[in-house]
Amino acid sequence: MTDSTLRLPAEWEPQAAVLIAWPHVDTDWAERLADVESTYLALAAAVTRFQPLIIVVADASLRAHVTAKLQGTQADMARIRFVELPYDDTWLRDSGPITLRDGDRFQLTDFRFTGWGGKFGAEQDDALIAGLVEAGVFGKAAHKRIDWALEGGGIESDGDGTILTTWRCLAQRHPEQSREEMSTILRDSLHAKRILWLDYGYLEGDDTDAHIDTLARFAPGERIVYQACSDAGDVHHSELQRMGEELSALRTADGKPYTLYPLPWAQPIIDDDRRLAASYANYLIVNGAVLVPAYGDAADNEAARIIGEAHPGRVVVQVPCRPLIWQNGSLHCITMQLPGDLIGG
């Protein structure tokens, strides 16, 4: 049985802060550190226009470096808090806490992080939530460890009990389990009412095995924003067309179709003969705004317009994210929103 008083908030609900971890020379970003830092600096400036930002840094030396960098930007330093902890990588959407809430009661749901199914070392990232709790970041919030692999980028919540996810990802993480078994675990651990599955949708260059946050996102008013592909000659066309058909067939809890917002398709971005996964669906919602990835592509502005239309009343801010896709993720992947009044002193 689930505790019906707890729920997984939608991302567009009020937030206490956004959580990120800063790239450094001992992460996989080392080869292109200056490029990716430019994105993190732009992100910090964008987030702190609207709300606090918590930055995890590896040590005091990195903290001093980041502070100096930020002071040369429009970031609001009064809204930035640093926490020193070790980490393997900077994809905090997947290693950060999935926070349930009931009014002013919060539960930090700490699933096992396996480096996307054992692709990468993840021991320090798997311990990150416990480290943040020990550092007092979350006040009196409960911390619940769940020994089952799940990443935050693998689920979408509408805030009202519906979770959207992909079969491709969770079947890779848990090949021994059936869809029904996994649905039960997701309902129980996330206190959800129902689980919606997508069987189609992927992006070349994505090593998360089709995280939902690269493909389709809930938006307020029973909307879904999703990455489409209009180029019939592109390898993604058939798969994303089928995903669009799946989304069209989904129904709300009241039995109505969702209003769909297909996003434009960026032209292929090739790096060292490798195609990179440039998804506009990987955007971040903050208080009063939506931060949208920009890739230096002709479709950037149209993607921003559509995302803004799906999230009315919010300022739309484009963040340059081309450096991020070199490591197979984008804007939403490097962030984790923290809901309500979660943050401690």
UniProtKB/TrEMBL annotation:
InterPro entries: Peptidyl-Arg-deiminase_porph. It holds the Pfam family PAD_porph. It comes from the Bacteria. Keywords: Hydrolase. This is Agmatine deiminase family protein.
